Amino acid sequence: MFYILRSDIGTARAQQELKRLRNYIKVAPADSMTVDRALDANWRDLEDALQYFSAVSAKCDALITRNPKDFKLDSIADSIPVLTPKKFIATHL
Asked: What is the pLDDT of residues 43-70, one digit of tens each?
C-alpha cells in the first residue's frame, strides 16, 4: 500500500495516510510458522505468500489485493477469499 501511495502522493503524505488508516485496521503478524508455510508453498512471489499466510494465521475474513490471480489457492486447505478492492467495497460497504 505504501508503494502505491508513495508514487501518487509522495513519501511524507503516504506515511501520514497510513498512520490514519492504522487506526482502523489490525496488522497480522508473520511468525516463524507463517514464514515456513510461505516458503513451503513455492509461490512465484514470496511477498504474496507471506501476506496470504499471515492473513490465514490471523483468521482474517479475506485478503484484499489488486492481483487476486497471483494467489494459488487450489491446494490450500484453510483458504480465505482473495478479493479486489472494488469487490470488497461492493460486498462489504
From this structure: 889 999 999 999 999 998 888 888 888 8
